[in-house]
Amino acid sequence: MPNVAEQLTAQLAAVVGSGSITFERSACSAFAIDDLVPQCVVYPGSAAHAAAALQYASNNGLAVVPCCNATKLSTGNVPRRYDVALCLKGLDQTRHYEPDDLTVSVEPGIRLGSFQELLSRRGLWIPLDAPDGAGSSLGGIVATNASGPLRLRYGAPRDMVLGMKIATVEGKVIKTGGRVVKNVAGYDLAKLMIGSYGTLGVIVEINFKLYPLPPRRVTRAFRATTLSIARDFRRKVLDSPLSPSRMILLDPGGSAIIRAGAPIARPAEHYEIWIEFAGSEAVTHRSLTMIEGIAASAGLAGHPLEEAAADGGWSRLADFASPGRRGPEDVLLKVSLPLSRAEEFIECSLREAGAAKVGHAACVQLGVGIIHLCLTPEERASELLAITGRIRQAAVQRGGALTVLHCPAGMKKNIDVWGTEPDDFPLMQRLKQTWDPNGTLSPGRFLGHL
Known about the structure:
The protein is of the alpha+beta class. The chain contains 15 helices and 19 strands. About 0% of the residues have low confidence. It starts with a helix and ends in a 15-residue tail after the last helix. It folds into 3 domains: about 90 residues, Uridine Diphospho-n-acetylenolpyruvylglucosamine Reductase, domain 2 (2-Layer Sandwich); about 120 residues, Uridine Diphospho-n-acetylenolpyruvylglucosamine Reductase, domain 3, CATH 3.30.465; about 200 residues, FAD-linked oxidases, C-terminal domain (Vanillyl-alcohol Oxidase, Chain A, domain 3, 3-Layer(aba) Sandwich), CATH 3.40.462.10. Helix 8 packs antiparallel against helix 12 and helix 9 crosses helix 11.
């Protein structure tokens, strides 16, 4: 005899159409979260269908997790309930494209790679190098405010979104913002949705501002024998007139992955700094001349990277920072720190990993203050929980915060992946209650188990 959830999800098929929902076990398993498998997967064919599904779920006590390609489902606490996966990958149309005005409106299921290909035909792009790279969906990128090292020059998704449409649990599709760069009408609700991980509403259309493609990009790689030398170089670059597109510091494990896609290795003898400049030939030539002088004064040895090697390395970096690309026993951490504390923190985390015999690979977004750190067990997986706690404490002591993006399911049951609740958490609770009073969207997944 079917249980209540099965009866309700069967009724949901009548709301969205039988062709837009599947109960197949194999299809549902593809959207599992920490061993929890949804009763069904809904593929809305329009924003209105998505809103109708949310309203039905809210009125009938079903828990919904929105997603596209399932690459970020491992991020977040274990859901309290999980009945419906709302997969938006079928919403993949470009609605309004005005290349002369540098604006575009798109649905959330479009993949970043396909989007960039479309824009490049008119010499445009959106400067995002988020985890999962070309395979990540625009909706997932915006919902998680995911960014990569290009954030140094261009900012995060919240800096590129002009407006959006949101499907709510009341069955409405509401519009916020606009399709023009200068827009000051009303409250900027889009900023509220960006980075909320689908816990308040479901993004069903996004308006982006666009950027001209740089005519030339060049990457230099420098080796530093110590973190002290790397720190000195970072300070000199950020204090200079240079404006790099992106700049990263790799520990030996991170360097092995970015260079060859190799498995995480035990620390070797050096660190690497990759730095990219973009612009005209004159601008990039001048930048390279200046950076070579700064590197020499800091005691770094450097060499140019061919375009193919550089592109491959930046692409592997996106894969490295993706929760969906990590092994089941790996722990992927995201650390946010004051800019001046990055090298000191890496020194501490390397020390902790070495003592616990845990593999360590790190990528620091210099000038941004974000570190992606992957730990992999070499002997005892049980050490991962304890070392993650110590590394989190080290981040907090240095004025930062740590989020566990991916970890074994057993470990997640014993840790809040988001860390300590911030001072404004009561406001977050009130927002959740206002937007999602029945706890329909991703219940328990977000900070403080919202």
